[in-house]
Protein 1
Amino acid sequence: MNARKLEAPDVSRVANSKTVSWYEASARQRVRLMLDAGSFQEFIGPEQREQSPHLRVFDLPTQFDDGIVVGRGRIAGTSIFVAAQEGRFMGGAFGEVHGAKLTGLLRAARDTKSVPVLILFDTGGVRLQEANAGELAIAEIMRALIEARMAGVKIVGLIGGRAGCYGGGGLIAGCCSALAVSEQGRISVSGPEVIETNRGVEEFDSRDRALVWRTMGGKHRRLLGGAEAFVDDTIQSFRNITLHLIGSVPGFGLDVLKAEQARLEERLQRFGDCADAMDIWRAKDIFDAEAVPIMSSSDFIDLANRDGDPRYDAR
Amino acid sequence: METLSYRHKAQERAAGSKSLAIIGVVASGNLEVLVERLLPDTECQVDINTAAEGFGAVWEAVVADFVERRSPGGLKLSINDGGARPDTVALRLAQAVRLIEEEDR
Amino acid sequence: MTLDDILASLFPQGHDVRNYDGVLLGSGSLKTGGRAVVIGIADRTAVGVDEAIRLSRHVLNAMERGGTGPILVLVDSDSQRMSKRDELLGLNEFLAHLAKCLIYADMQGRQTVGLLYGHSAAGAFLATALATRVLVALPGAEPEVMDLPSMSKVTKLSIDVLKEKAKSTPVFAPGLDNLAQTGAVLSTLDEKTSLAEQLQTLLGSDQDGGDRRDRLGKTRRGRPKAADIAERVHDLALQSK
């Protein structure tokens, strides 16, 4: 099933993917515009109508693809498996069918060994109405992902959608070979409201957008080392970084885990007493730390690269 | 949840050769339309799943108007509705037909 | 059973597991003569960056020393620590790293066994108990993905309404029965007989690799679709070019 035939952009004729916003695009649009024209074949597409069996109990509507598009295609001629979450359906959250589609894809990647996997995250985490199934799906995805990496598969995560990459999605992201994030992207386990509820508004005001972005947003994650790459909010930028990351990440094994342990221990040692992201950026001697949130993407990318080359061997 | 289904005669077969298209997202105020070329040339069907019960008359009118304007012969359109307004429904139905009528670039 | 009772019953030959502010680290002698690595969370402690990094270090130290003994993960935790500091420092990476270490160890032949003896929730559950090959529980354990009050707040349905809906499906509400039926928890151990013996049986029975939780969830009717959907996508992908 060719997804390129399935959907055209909602806006009038789009010139090319260089200017299309990743944030504004649907999951299907991201897949269609990132991949080589005509190369995408979908696995269990919407016409199969494999919808959630659990939403009816809550009088909630279902989506034909249960909010995730999975399949195979090519980027610049390179064959890849791809999964794209639709962040506007149930907040992109993991339900039983949604999660199982990604689990199956990763197990196939493990068995194929030679085809990289792209995961286009756009998720609030576990879908409450199917909480146990969603959580288990995430656990199975993490297992299948590591099995695939052990078989030599490169797995790249892309984060820049409306729902961010929260909850269990953040854990799956941490299992990927490498991550690219845009300004709009956020990566976190607990969401802003939950932190506020638990710790009080003095510690974390969930309505303070600047605070949310300093703490969880793409720029901070890049500077902290929570993502290997920061990109502009365009389909083309994500496409380019994907090719770069696939070519940059080494294999997975004990050395990578030991390097990650050292990386995370060093982070705690250096920044464990910092009260805010601004303190971390200043501790890293980032020039003009106050300007980071308002910096353009290209200026920020230059700044981040001056801070140091990202390492690809410690995730 | 309510399930509605409307079958109509259509003046003409929907153009093009694609067998399948999809548009939209099931989100608040939005809907998805899956369109499949499955029926005889002069027939069409619109199936709707919606959590907003009791709006049958509105759906019926929107669908009838759509069939009259677009002549979606041969098409089965399946909707998952997230509580969209009638004008949004009309827009998506029209988009769906345009998509399936598109030639491959 | 208290934690001390549990450890004594698991390791009648002796153990050196200690509780460091809720973080359990150590090892124990197995009846077969080998040694099990032990990590865990106690006292319903939240799992934050400080806890996760210690647990993963212990697992990696064991991998470096070599050996073939299993790794036990004892769990009585809260959820992940929900704080500004933990998220600021990248909690997702710390939790993922811990899970990766456990999964990697298991794939290298160090069988990982989770024993849920208290509570666990959400991100902590994923990084510990759910990152093991086999997860068992003691009676009275209380796993949950999300608590009903929080679910009530988000869904705008009362707790009573949620409880009523939970009678017809095991797919969302907390509890050992639901997590067993959906395939997360393999079995509940008998606290009146030797845990060491039961552990031995567990270690001996599951030689075949592979994550079978989705198939277990299907058999137990807790997750009717997951196994089949995953298998179908897998097969379609393998056939694709």
Protein 2
Amino acid sequence: MPEEPGLDDNAPLFAQVAQRLSEQVAEGQLAEGGRAPSANELAAFHRINPATAAKGLNVLIDEGLLEKRRGLGMFVAPGARKRLLDARREQFAARYVAPMVAEAGRLGMDLDEVVLLVRRSADVALGPRASRKT
Amino acid sequence: MTQTISCHGVARRYGSHLAVDQVSFEVHGPSVTGLLGRNGAGKTTLLRLLAGQELPSAGQVRVLGGDPAGADALARQIVLVREDQAFPDFKVGDALRAAGWSYPRWDHKLADALVSDFDLPSSRQVKKLSRGMRSALGIVIGLAAQAPVTLFDEPYAGLDATARRLFYDRLLADYTEHPRTVVVSTHLIDEIADLLERVLVIDRGHIALDAPADGLRGSATAVSGPAPAVAVFVSGRTTWEHRTVGPLASATVADMLDATDQARARQLHLSVAPLSLQEVLVHATRPDRAHQAERVGS
């Protein structure tokens, strides 16, 4: 099975915290320049040790996605969203397309059929017009 | 960071029985440590040693730089919450007042809030409380004492799941506000796992494991699928358990799987599930583990 883009239970808690936060930045729920939750807020929300939450925040600071402003807290760095979305686009083929093609191969489906299914799925999700826009 | 607890070569003997033997560990700065182990493993003895309620037969116990069984002033910096509470003849309110005198940092407001959270009847005698209510009273004292070293010995007896959740939430909130050294002994590992920074496992009086909690999660993995594929996957790895049913097999691998392993498992059509902290520890302390751990093939 391909990994879900969400939580990966295999990962240590701090990594899951970092993962959740970067998803929120990528999806715009945490705006660039906006304040990020503090370690204590994250600890209370996820019901985890505050040191674990702080470790998760530090991962994003090290990656330059969050910035610490003295006395004010943690903020989403400018350009963070674009960087995260670019990274996700780079992973798209490996994460979603390759496992799909592999499964289609195991089931003996031909590629045209797969392409057709992708198109149909897009019609449902985005509407026929939007999905055909080039 | 300052060292708050240290044990060096600590033993406690009762007659011919060694309840605790050659125990050495240190706790630095504020943290929440889980003291885990089977019944009779030595958890209570170790906590009583830390609280100065027992004297070591050998070795040295230091808490906040001093001997916990020595100066009375130090005893007021340590609270140990156990199931069998003191003050059986007191009313709940009076028991809390008495506890308030014992601990210089006692937080009356917090005590009142917790009494109402746990629905404790202030005017009932402690010995007439239900088991769960006695546990709740212990939790109130343990948290309101605000002691720099706060020790809980299986504080949840008789508490239902809702009340236990309340305990974990209040512990986390209070710890976040007033970080200090907290040690909790428990059997309900998965319930508290996410609050722990560190895990100390005691097995037959010895420290069997001393590790950061986050590193243990998923440090072993259950692998299952077609028996031949499982056999291929576990070859050369340390496994704890191997079971088969018909064409299916499952094995527990004593490894955290990296991306390559994961990809290989997918290729072999195996499903993999990381073990929870509780499952990891069950494997680490099972009596037959010497026979279970085997190196397959190679």
